[in-house]
TrEMBL record:
<feature type="domain" description="SHSP">
    <location>
        <begin position="30"/>
        <end position="141"/>
    </location>
</feature>
<dbReference type="InterPro" id="IPR037913">
    <property type="entry name" value="ACD_IbpA/B"/>
</dbReference>
<dbReference type="Pfam" id="PF00011">
    <property type="entry name" value="HSP20"/>
</dbReference>
<keyword id="KW-0346">Stress response</keyword>
<protein>
    <submittedName>
        <fullName>Hsp20 family protein</fullName>
    </submittedName>
</protein>
<dbReference type="InterPro" id="IPR008978">
    <property type="entry name" value="HSP20-like_chaperone"/>
</dbReference>
<comment type="similarity">
    <text>Belongs to the small heat shock protein (HSP20) family.</text>
</comment>
<dbReference type="InterPro" id="IPR002068">
    <property type="entry name" value="A-crystallin/Hsp20_dom"/>
</dbReference>
Length: 155
């Protein structure tokens, strides 16, 4: 088992505790991850991504795409009409699956398409204005003069 010390990260940064917790979970889970169905994650633009999952043999009705608590959950369950078929060789797996992807903050699913045996899920990272870089004006070394308002006393 691997052990990492995140103390230097905590000394030099603020707000990265979620990343350290996620790293701890990843390294603690030494179980092999399922490889079915195969998928790709690609960066299509500076703030856009696409997940492509091979779902040969599944229809739109068999597939489910949901976002729950910063996780994208893709699941498929084939209808039970396979009992009527007799296979001499069955090489196309259509077994049920559930695949989870952890989404970073401010990543939103914009759509999903199913064509030619591939399920494409498009995502975009939308940074709020408060998190975008902004320039801070630096005041000169002189003490800033404050505006004085003349006030009249009221009896």
């Amino acid at each position: 088992m691997r052990s990492f010390d995140f103390a230097p990260l905590y000394r030099a940064s603020v707000g990265f505790d979620q990343i350290a917790d996620m790293m701890d979970r990843v390294f603690a889970n030494e179980a092999p991850q399922p490889s079915y169905p195969p998928y790709n994650i690609e960066k299509t633009d500076e703030n856009a991504y696409r997940i492509s999952i091979a779902v040969a043999g599944f229809t739109d009705a068999d597939l489910s795409v949901e976002v729950k608590e910063n996780a994208l959950v893709v699941a498929a369950r084939k209808a039970d009409d396979e009992k009527e078929r007799v296979y001499l060789h069955r090489g196309i797996a259509t077994r049920a699956f559930e695949r989870r992807f952890t989404l970073a903050d401010h990543v939103r699913v914009t759509g999903a398409t199913h064509a030619d045996g591939m399920l494409h899920i498009d995502l975009v990272r939308e940074m709020p204005e408060a998190l975008k870089p902004r320039r801070i004006e630096i005041a000169s070394g002189k003490a800033a003069e404050k505006d004085v308002v003349d006030a009249k006393t009221v009896n």
